[in-house]
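Section 3.1: Structural characterization of target chains.
Under the original work plan, the team committed to producing a structural model for every single-chain target entering the pipeline before any wet-lab resources were allocated. The record below documents one such target. The sequence was received from the expression subgroup and is listed exactly as submitted; it comprises 316 residues.
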Amino acid sequence: MNKILVTGSLGQIGTELVDYLRGIYGSANVIASGRRDKQDSSIVTEGPFELLDVTDPKKTENVVKNNRVNTIYHLASLLSATGEKDPQALWNINMNGLINVLEAARAQGCSVFYPSSIAVFGAESPKDKTPQVTITRPSTIYGISKVAGELLCDYYHMKYGFDIRGLRYPGIISNIALPGGGTTDYAVHIFYDAIKHGKHTCFLKEDTFLDFIYMPDALEGAVKLMEADPAKLRHRNAFNVTAMSITPKQLCAEIKKHRPEFTINYEIDPVRQDIADSWPNSIDDSAARSEWGWDPEYNLEKMTKDMLDVLSARLK
């Protein structure tokens, strides 16, 4: 039986990925972990949970060994906007944490899922339909850590031969998990404000294009990649994936189709705007589509309707 460890399981993706994996593989076979024990979370109460700071190499190895883990979904990291406030903390968690997980995986013979990000791209990357393989010179410490992480995963696969796979996620929109300090967080906040207040103040310019996917597609994509035939994976690590390239103005217009009274104004955060401006307008995910069948279900229209329906019922 596959025994799976999820690091960073109380974060934006981990919160939902643990439940998703437990629904597939059984609760007893998916071990959640995090730096704190959040007792009111189903992640902690409805299956095995380990307190784990991935910057502690011995603890990381012991958790993997003692639970007989054979697959690790390594999600523990700091995100872009948060990282700019404390670059040293981000590097410690994102890079030292990654190498500790890779060393534990190497010792125990585990496969690893490592999520990268469109933050690996920078001002010198092609802005439109950014290719799978292109120049990656990011201007944020988060993006730099993700480029280094991709290369480190490639190195471990080539040198030690164990299975490491990953996705370059764009912004992820969720109706469950709250934002975790990323530049694309506006696209989650805007839905809560539309329902609760009927208005939103956006920290990015109205014409800022960024790629997004809806959380159900993000979860399915991770598992589908990990279960794909390795013989078909030419790239293996850091696949571009996307479902929609949109601006705040376009998202607002789609929300107004359901809530005509909704309004938006703009108070630009120069730090997050600079980060967003360094990222692509759109990315090319044809490698993921051809090599392992990436095919997102949700576009802007379908995602917007589902977000408003689910959040309206919950917040009511």
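The first strand starts at residue 4 and ends at 7.
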